[in-house]
Structures are given as structure tokens and as C-alpha cells.
Write a structure and sequence with these properties.
Layout (H helix, E strand, L loop, with lengths): L5 H11 L24 E6 L2 E4 L4 E2 L7 E6 L8 E10 L22 E9 L2 E10 L4 E3 L6 E8 L1 H5 L9 H7 L6 E6 L9 E2 L9 E4 L3 E5 L8 E3 L5 E5 L8 E9 L9 E8 L5 E7 L5 E7 L5 E4 L11 E11 L2 E10 L9 E4 L7 E7 L6 E10 L10 H4 L7 H11 L3 E5 L16 H12 L2 E4 L5 E5 L9 E6 L21 E6 L4 E5 L18 E6 L7 H12 L8 E5 L3 H4 L2 H9 L5 E5 L9 E12 L4 E9 L20 E4 L9 E8 L12 E5 L2 E9 L5 E6 L14 E4 L8
């Protein structure tokens, strides 16, 4: 009869019931979980304070753990929301949100902030920072074992659920309060073709009445707007402007597109009534100068008391913003009609003084009625306590942020939804984006990351998102170096040498623009049929970049990434409980400090896999319990990100067009005859040595080359990468690190 050891089972049962310290209380330094004797910390944000709930976390007889997953699961996947799961002891009902006896009653809800950290030197390393979306309560039939299966997620989960399109860039700015001067009334005019009125975007302001037969939602040339109406000859929008205190400055602003054929001379495009001595103002069109605008004011009898005359930019066939600005200056009105052509710098238009007149406040508006098919939109009344100086404040919104860098766009969008943002790298190094369209924030963020080729990630030091620029991942030193021989690894790293991510024929297109194609036509990863190549692996990618000029580089860079000729190591695991980590706070801290896109290296690999491993970290899977803290890093090859650096001895050398061993060399031979098959000969300049080349899989250091014709004699130091072999005739010879041009 086998003997059952009761003590561990009893201890586990007591731990489940909360009668014994949980797994995350103080533990011995030898566990690797807490070399300083401090516990892992699980905190819940309750009533404005971070509250330690670690004593209530259960491990279920050692079979459970605090499990964390974040980042990309692999290089072909998009960023998944971070996830943290564990069980909470709920015997006293404190984690039941609707339990009035709970000390947290009324203080627990959906998306409750949660964070998890472990010690790292004299500081803490946050492994997860997210939100608890729900509180699923569980108990057994005895009612003694009561718990909560807590499942928390990073902010990406919430951003990806129930997110409506954010709207056009100008609408977001005007409706979202991004203006310096107060918006009294705002009608976007982005209404659909079957609308029966023009909706107001300002609370308490009436919709505009549609008169005549304008074509709603039919003009699509303003990148900053959803489709706008074309007014036609009889179409107008009219409505009441709500009462507001008479300000110093009053502005009427709107977008307008006059056809290239112009409009009727002296046609009023917009008309407003006011409470001042000037009872009516109208913006009118003149055929002079290629289509210019003027401003008129009339008194109560209809007499024109002010006429600026028409001047400024030629507007026929242009997209423009019009700003009528009336500033009460003592007894007079300073009048200006400032016109901006979208996408161009500067403003122009007539200005002058209406002497001995007052503005008051605007009460009524009528817009449209030109004799031609003029498009209008984003009509608003704004006020200011001083003469306006904000004419250029919405320039970026008016061009839909075209030319904005990818990192700046991601940062701005995070601010729009209240998510903290972290940037690794420089925003100026990221690509220039095309126009921002109306879609979800998450789609726009992912679009920017795709265009630049960097890495999105969820922050662990705050609830927010981060972005790692592509340039910041190039030519970097290892953030963590592990030794295979020193048993730093928790499991054998498994190389994968397959074609899952092979792409050697790439077409990159610009949304609304052209396309470019890059194809690898020679070499072992080329489109040539095997064995000369691997065959064709084609794909297309649509990018929202600013210019078609960048598409060739985009296609070429992506082809470079897709033709990496080396094994992948998708997962690399460590256990911080291993003596090599408990004995080295430096190694432990380095493992905990890795961020998305950091380089991880493995040295001292076995003879059957001789090359050092170098990968970029994409994601994490962590398991923390009484006895271990296991981290599995999701990775992709780092070598494609070693890019050209001018005058660098490592990254600044051009390879030949093709070379091979001309005469067989034995394993110990230090003189090798190399034939150049294409391109220029190898350098013989003494100042260029040493440098590394790969000969038939063996990496050697070249210390000298002689010979003015092919073949040339190489003096080498053998077996730099641990490979020792006979070099046969025809063995490929190439630079160990050729110059690669970055995107």
C-alpha cells in the first residue's frame, strides 16, 4: 500500500482557506522570487489609493500562479492586450462588488486598476498594469472555499471594444474643445444624403434648416472632413444663433470650395444678423482676381455702412477656410476677412474699419445660395476677449495631419483617449504619415506603427500604450546576455528554420496613391525555384505614408526582413529562481528590465548549434508562484536590424557581388584563395583590416588580403564562431555583416 504524505495536502488546504500565509507573502531569498526578502506585490486601486491585496492571492496547492502575458505572441501577430490571471480568496466577500458587508462596497467596479510588481534591486519592476473588467465569483458546494477568478487586461482590451470612429480631424478639433477661442455654435455639415436638417454639434444650439435642394454628403475633397454638401444655386442652410454675451471679438468661420469656373459676381456666400448697429453682415464673391472675397455690413435700413472690397487669394478651384473677424475697438469695428488656402502657408483678404459702429452678438445665419455648385462646411461662431490670433492654430487639422510623424500621431491619439504614452526612440526618426481618416483610435495607432515598422506595446509602469521606433531597434547592444553553458536558460532554446515568415516579393502601396514592388531575384532566399532559391513568396501591404516617393524603400525594407536567412528562436525562457539569477542581481535586473524591441543574446551555444543567438523581444509570458518566477520571451531575429552606419568598421562595409573559395583549404589553413565572381575585388588597403567574413558557414577574421586580380589570397584567423571545417572549392564567401540600408 502506498503511503500518502498528509502534511503538504493539509498545508495546501489551509492555504486555500486563508489559514496560512499565501504564496506571495515573505519567501526565502533562495527561491529566486525575492532575493531581498521582499514579497511580490499585487495592488488594486481602491478609493483613490493603491491597496495591497497580495495576502488574498491563492496558488491552489502550488498548482496555480500569477500568470501574465503581454506583447506580441510572435513576429507575425499584432499586439494582443496584456492579461493577468490569478485567484483571490473571497471567504469574507470583500471582492464581491455588490456585497454591502465588504470593506470595498461601492468601490469595486468594471475596469478597476490593478498592478503587479516584483523587486529589482532597490526598486520594483512592474510586470503588469491594467484593469479588472469583471469579478467572477466562485464557491464549492460546502460554501467553505470561496474565491474570485480574477482576469485583468491591459488598456488595449478596452480600446478595442465598442470604439466608434472618432470622426474627421476638423470635427474632432472643433467638437472636442481643441480651439483657443470659445465655440458658441458649430454645424459640421457632414450630414448624410438623406438628412432632413443640418445637425448642431454644440449643446443647446438648434439644427440648421435645409432650404432648396443641396446635395448633402457629396463633396469629398476636404481631407479634414467627412463628405460635405454642395449647395447648388438655390440651396441654403438657415438657423438661429443662441444668445451669448457680446464679446470683444466675434468670428464666423467655414470651409468653402468654389468650382474652377467661379461663381456669380457679387454673390453673397454667407449672411448673418447681429444686435449691434450693423444689423447684417455678408461675405460675398467677386470674379476679380480669379475669385476673391469681400465683406459688407448694413444698418437697420439696409444701407451699406462698410464694404471692404474683394481681395486676397484667387479661390476658384481651391479648398479654403474663410474667417470673418469683427473686433470691437472702442466706438469702431476692426473688420477682417482672412482666407487660408488649405495646405498652403499664409492668410490673405481685405480688412478695414467700420467707424462709429458696434458688433453686438450674432443672432441668425444663412449660408449658401451662390449661383454655382459651391461646397461649404464646418460652420462655426467663435468669440474672444481680444483680437483673435488663432488663425493658424488648426493648420494641422485642416490638412488631416498629413506629414505628421508616426510617433507623434500615436502620441496624439493616445492623448485623445486619455492613455499615458511612452516613446522609445526619437519621433523625428519615424516616417511621415498620410492624412488621418475617420476610423477607430486603435486602427489609426496600428496604421502608424505599420507604416514606420516599429513596435507597439502596453506600458507596465502606467495604464497606457508605448511605441518603440524602428530606428531605435537598429544596431543596438544586448539588453540581456544569457550563457547556454552557464545554464541561464530554463529550457533548451528551439531553433525554427522554416518559411513561415519568408517574403521575397513585396508590393507596397499608398492608400489613395501609387505602389512599388521589390523582388529578390538571386541568392538562396530569392524567387528562383529551389535549389537556386526558395520560390516566390509574395505579399502586398497598404501603407498610409505621406508620399509615393517612399514606397520603393518601404517595399525593399520589408523584402529585407522577409528574406532573413537564419533560424528563428521564437521563445527563450529563464527562471529567476535559478542560482545563476539569485547569485547575480545584475543578471536578474537585466532580465526584468527588458522592453519591447530590446535585444536578447545567448552565448556559448553547443557545438551542434555553434552561432550565438541574437533576438529582439516581442512579448512575455510569466508565471509566478511560491517557488519560481519563470519568464518566456517571445522573439524574432535581430540581425535584419543591423543597418548601415557611415564610416563604421562593422556596419559600413559593402559586400562584393559574389565570391567563393578558389582552392580547397583544410581546417587549420590560415591562407585561403578567394575568387571574386562579380563586382569589385576585395580591398587590399592595410587600414581596412581586420574584418569578419563567412566562408561556407565558418566565420573567420580577415587580417590581410593580397592580389590585384582574382583570385586573391586571404590571411585569416579561423573558427571565430566555433565552426572548424574543410573549405571546399566553390564555398560561398561573404561579409559576416554586410552594409544594409535602413528604411
Amino acid at each position: 500500500m502506498s503511503r500518502v504524505h498528509i502534511a503538504p495536502l493539509a498545508a495546501g488546504w489551509q492555504r486555500r482557506l486563508g489559514g496560512q500565509a499565501g504564496p506571495l507573502g515573505p519567501v526565502s531569498a533562495g527561491s529566486g522570487e525575492s532575493p531581498t526578502g521582499q514579497p511580490l506585490l499585487v495592488e488594486l486601486f481602491v478609493d483613490g489609493l493603491w491597496t495591497d491585496i497580495t495576502p488574498y492571492v491563492m496558488t491552489r496547492d502550488g498548482s496555480g500562479s500569477v500568470s501574465i502575458a503581454r506583447g506580441q505572441p510572435d513576429e507575425g501577430a499584432s499586439l494582443d492586450p496584456a492579461r493577468c490571471t490569478f485567484q483571490l480568496n473571497n471567504r469574507d466577500g470583500r471582492f464581491s462588488p455588490r456585497n454591502p458587508s465588504s470593506p470595498y462596497f461601492g468601490k469595486l467596479g468594471r475596469n478597476q486598476p490593478l498592478r503587479v510588481s516584483v523587486p529589482s534591486g532597490n526598486d520594483r519592476s512592474y510586470r503588469f498594469w491594467g484593469e479588472v473588467a469583471s469579478w467572477p465569483q466562485r464557491w464549492d458546494t460546502t460554501g467553505v472555499d470561496v474565491w474570485v477568478d480574477l482576469d485583468a487586461a491591459g488598456p488595449l482590451r478596452r480600446l478595442g471594444q465598442g470604439q466608434a470612429q472618432i470622426g474627421s480631424t476638423l470635427y474632432v478639433a472643433l467638437a472636442g474643445g481643441e480651439t483657443v477661442n470659445q465655440v458658441v455654435a458649430y454645424w459640421p455639415c457632414e450630414d448624410s444624403s438623406t438628412s432632413t436638417s443640418i445637425a448642431s454639434a454644440t449643446a443647446g444650439v438648434q439644427d440648421l434648416t435645409i432650404n432648396g435642394s443641396p446635395s448633402l454628403g457629396s463633396f469629398t475633397s476636404f481631407a479634414c472632413s467627412a463628405p460635405l454638401p454642395v449647395m447648388h444655386a438655390s440651396g441654403t442652410f438657415t438657423g438661429i444663433i443662441p444668445a451669448y454675451p457680446a464679446p470683444v471679438a466675434t468670428m464666423l468661420r467655414f470651409l468653402i470650395a468654389i468650382p474652377s469656373t467661379g461663381a456669380g459676381n457679387n454673390t453673397a456666400l454667407c449672411f448673418v444678423n447681429s444686435t449691434g448697429s450693423v444689423k447684417a453682415w455678408d461675405v460675398y464673391y467677386s470674379t476679380a482676381g480669379g475669385g476673391t472675397l469681400g465683406l459688407r455690413g448694413r444698418d437697420a435700413t439696409g444701407y451699406i455702412v462698410y464694404d471692404s472690397g474683394a481681395s486676397g487669394f484667387a479661390l476658384d478651384g481651391q479648398l479654403a477656410q474663410v474667417s470673418m473677424e469683427l473686433v470691437q475697438n472702442g466706438p469702431d469695428i476692426n473688420c477682417a476677412l482672412n482666407v487660408m488656402i488649405i495646405g498652403q502657408s499664409g492668410i490673405a483678404g481685405p480688412s478695414g474699419t467700420a467707424s462709429s459702429q458696434t458688433v453686438g452678438s450674432l443672432t441668425y445665419i444663412a449660408i449658401g445660395g451662390a449661383s454655382v455648385d459651391t461646397a461649404v462646411g464646418h460652420v462655426r461662431i467663435q468669440t474672444s476677449s481680444a483680437a483673435p490670433t488663432d488663425q493658424f492654430d488648426l493648420q494641422q487639422q485642416l490638412v488631416a495631419y498629413a506629414g505628421e510623424t508616426a510617433a507623434d500621431r500615436i502620441s496624439r491619439l493616445c492623448g485623445l483617449v486619455g492613455a499615458d504614452f511612452e516613446l522609445i526612440g526619437s519621433a523625428s526618426d519615424t516616417v511621415a504619415m498620410g492624412v488621418q481618416t475617420s476610423t477607430t483610435v486603435l486602427d489609426l495607432v496600428e496604421e502608424a506603427a505599420l507604416a514606420d515598422g516599429g513596435k507597439l506595446f502596453e506600458r507596465t509602469s502606467a495604464a497606457g500604450l508605448g511605441y518603440r521606433t524602428r530606428v531605435s531597434m537598429e544596431n543596438q547592444s544586448a539588453g540581456l546576455t544569457l550563457s547556454y553553458a552557464a545554464a541561464n536558460l530554463a529550457q533548451v532554446p528551439t531553433p525554427v528554420d522554416d518559411d513561415q515568415y519568408t517574403r521575397n516579393d513585396i508590393t507596397a502601396s499608398r492608400k489613395g496613391g501609387s505602389s512599388a514592388r521589390a523582388t529578390l531575384t538571386e541568392g538562396p532566399m530569392s524567387v528562383l525555384p529551389p535549389p537556386a532559391g526558395v520560390g516566390r513568396y509574395d505579399t502586398t501591404v497598404a501603407l498610409n505614408v505621406q508620399s509615393d516617393d517612399s514606397l520603393a524603400d518601404q517595399a525593399g525594407w520589408r523584402m529585407h526582413l522577409g528574406t532573413t536567412d537564419e533560424a528563428r528562436f521564437p521563445q527563450i525562457s529563464v527562471n529567476l529562481a535559478h542560482p545563476s539569477f539569485t547569485a547575480s542581481s545584475t543578471l536578474r535586473s537585466a532580465a526584468l528590465a527588458l522592453k519591447s524591441g530590446d535585444r536578447l543574446a545567448i552565448t556559448d551555444m553547443p557545438a551542434w548549434s555553434p552561432n550565438d543567438v541574437s533576438q529582439l523581444v516581442l512579448g512575455w509570458a510569466e508565471s509566478i508562484d511560491h517557488f519560481q518566477h519563470r519568464i518566456t520571451f517571445n522573439c524574432q531575429p535581430e540581425s535584419p536590424y543591423r543597418t548601415a552606419v557611415l564610416d563604421s568598421a562593422t556596419y559600413g562595409r559593402l559586400d562584393t557581388g559574389g565570391s567563393s573559395v578558389a582552392v580547397a583549404a583544410g581546417p587549420s589553413d590560415t591562407s585561403v584563395l578567394v575568387a571574386t565572381l562579380a563586382g569589385p575585388l576585395w580591398t587590399t588597403s592595410p587600414g581596412d583590416f581586420p574584418f569578419d567574413v563567412v566562408m561556407g558557414g565558418e566565420q573567420v577574421a580577415v587580417t590581410n588580403i593580397v592580389g590585384a586580380t582574382s583570385p586573391q589570397t586571404f590571411t585569416v584567423t579561423r573558427s571565430v564562431n566555433g565552426v572548424t571545417k574543410t573549405l571546399p572549392v566553390g564555398a560561398d564567401v561573404r561579409l559576416a555583416q554586410p552594409m544594409i540600408l535602413a528604411l
